[in-house]
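Support reply, case 0932

Customer input (verbatim):
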Amino acid sequence: MIPAAFDYHRPADIASAVALLQELGDDARPLAGGHSLIPMMKLRMASVEYLIDLQDIDELRGISVSDGIVSIGAMTTQHDLITDAALAEAAPIMREAALQIADPQVRYVGTLGGNVANGDPGNDMPGLMQCLDATFTLVGPGGSRDVAARDFYEAAYMTAREDDEILTRVTFAAPTGGYAYEKQKRKIGDYATAAAAIQMTRDDGLCSSAAIALTNLSDVPVFAKAAGAALVGTSCDASAVTAAISAALGEIDPTEDNRGPVEFKLHVAGIVILRAIERAWSRT
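Our regenerated output:
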């Protein structure tokens, strides 16, 4: 289908983009990669009178790793996440997850900021950002503010970002230890039926820290705090892993859809969590 008519704006800097959002109000939408918004507009499920394309804003791009801190501009593409050598060394889980998003054509255009900002519970990066305890920088008419990824998601497609704010940057401490992003999907390139991101460390043969986050198993990404805690202080033996899986399953709330009934999703969730723990532990 063809979307309804709209006015198109392409600002060259963040300040201009924020000014347009403030001036045009609720009928304006920022555009990153467009893989979520444009299809909704074509289906007439989203009515947008003013489209503000962020493609020309250079300050929204780029990856830096300095003093153990990873900083990624919101308009950095999934392809950039895959090919950046410094990022692959500092946070290899980013590359592992990005390689499982859609297909190369999508990854050349799809952005990190777009993936995390629109609040789609099926997107891969929001859960990963919670696993990494990332911080999102938002810029609006009142200036800049930081919001923790673990506090950002409120409900499906509802986040802490105000309508006149732009998510500009993602930052997190470079993780250490083992990692895994495990994803079950109906076909290559699909959204996850269930996915798990895990970062963990080992000290003297025991798990010293574990962060676990889950994707598409609730109306928001789920940081499974109790599941990670169940592994800490253990050798990640069968009983500890079973306890972690049980804790994680208690923190999710999947719903039936075209990816399967609730019982199937709970079953798949247990499998991806198990596989992610085993793979992350083997990498510690």
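We compared this against your earlier run and they match. Two observations from our side: The chain has three domains: 7-51, 61-173, 178-282. The radius of gyration is 19 Å. Please reopen the case if you see a mismatch on your end.
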